[in-house]
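Title: Prediction job returns without error message
Component: structure pipeline
Severity: low
Priority: P3
Assignee: unassigned

Description:
Job completed but the reporter wants confirmation the result is attached to the right record. Sequence as submitted:
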Amino acid sequence: MPIEVRTHATLAETARAFAASRGAHILGGGTVLMRAVNAADPSVATILRPADPVLRQIRTEGREIAIGAGVTMAEIIAHRELGFLAPVARLVGGPQVRTTATIGGNLFAAAPYGDVAGALLALGASVVTGEGRRMPLDDLFRPHAPRAFVATILVAPSRDFHFVKVSRVRPKGVSVMSIAANLPRPGGRLQDPRIVFNGMGARPMRAVAAERALSGQPLDAATIARAASLAAEGLAPEDDAIASAWYRREVAPVHLRRLLEGAA
């Protein structure tokens, strides 16, 4: 069945076309969508090419940085104000992939991909849809969340952000899992910590039990041990060609403990 390709000049036009058809998909860098096309995925009936320049912009909005969904990993790495995200973007594929893969596309990349999405979730990012509606990134990753055309990602820089990617091939193999954590400690105690695993479910997932163990506590050995013991609680790893669900559950506490010890 042929696939129709449409180009739209504005976000509003693209949003209307996206809403009108469940078979419509947004083309960004193509690293996710074109794989589906090449595999003859029957769910792809129409490809929408948004040409609105806002999708390629990076700008400051108060305390947040607004990143267009079409901004590539290479552009994130090169941008001075996105230094907190650069270490994560550098671990996405090789140079050719990073020049095409977009931050918006990474939000919809199935595990074990989507490491940048996990980092944004840990940072408490929000998204703005093509219709202009703002929503927390948490809502986009909830089970059975409605489809969304993401136009912009809003994220506040953090000096308390930490990230680790676990892979069998170093430094840039496919993730067994990755862990992103935002660990603010005003007054020496953790306040609203956010810990996100990618690769421990179909989408990035917050380790809520570990977050509760950390909240209000100093980042000491006892707190770290308690949080690590709860690392996999509530998560849903799956078997795949990279690792088994059993292995992921076994190593998740080890890698969370190491991340927390490095942050202490």
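Comment from assignee: result matches the submitted record. The mean pLDDT is 93.
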